[in-house]
Amino acid sequence: MTATVRTATLADLERLLPQMDQQFVFGKGRSISLEERFPAVYCTENRANIFVLEEDGKVVSALASKRFEWVCPNRIWSGAMIGMVYTHPEQRRCGFASYLLDRAIERLYADGVEFVVLWTDQPAFYARLGWIAADCGVLGVLGAVPSPSEPGGNVARAPAHAADIERIELIRRHRCVRLLPRSEKDYGQLPPPAKTVDILLWGGGIDHAAYAIVGVVGQVGILYEMTGNPEGFSLLWADMCRGHGRILANDMKGSTAQSWLAENTGLAWQDKPLAMWLPLSVHAETAGFSNWYIPYFDRI
Fold first, then answer.
1. pLDDT digits (tens, 9 = 90+) for 54-112
2. Is residue 149 pLDDT above 80, yes or no?
3. pTM exceeding 0.85
4. Which of 56, 161, 224, 235 is most open to solvent, judged by the fewest CB atoms within 10 Å of its CB?
5. Which residue, among 118, 199, 136, has the nearest Cα to 163 in the 3D structure?
């Protein structure tokens, strides 16, 4: 294959984003461009982590990666997630995406990344390339949302990008066994198909506080995360139920929030084994990926 893999230029992104929007957003009947949905990915600061494959002077394939810290009880890992793997329709089934993926991973490894993760409904393809399928994620579905029995209480709602992010991060550090720290720009993320994302915040201080990250599209509410003191979960849940005809909940099986939701709501749960992991360091080869869960809100 006579092709060159390099990081994207601003001109590349201007040409590619409309095509990628059509494949990953508009072609699926959704709205809001990738650039708006993933402001921490499609930005100048992250351009070195967007890779393109060029053949005969034309970019035919691209993918986005995003580096992150993965904070565990015994150490902090250097990870990278991969998403939006795109190949021009006329060049598909020619091996471009696989070649680009391999070269991108080589670059990430050379820069000290210890593991890579992506989410797919085609695990067999990645398993052949050495990726490991391991995911404790679950999806809860509630098709008939009851009227909230809890009265409105000490719950504040704000758009995620305008919420008290510093406090949210303190609650996460206090409560989460494993953690992907978020920046202010990360809270601007709009995972498809959500059109808006709000943060509901209950309580005071850190010990006596809880929050929920909720996406909204039409009459559907999408619970991405609920963390903190379980005393506040009922009020957060009641606030989230208002105005929604259907609720989806993404969580980790057996987490404090998922256990509470399973006991106190009518959500029907199903496994969502989408995560594929690729260890790049000796230490990562023995990592317990089956116990790792990166929240849906953080994924690309």
1. 998 899 999 999 999 999 999 999 999 999 999 988 778 788 999 999 999 999 999 99
2. no
3. yes
4. 56
5. 199
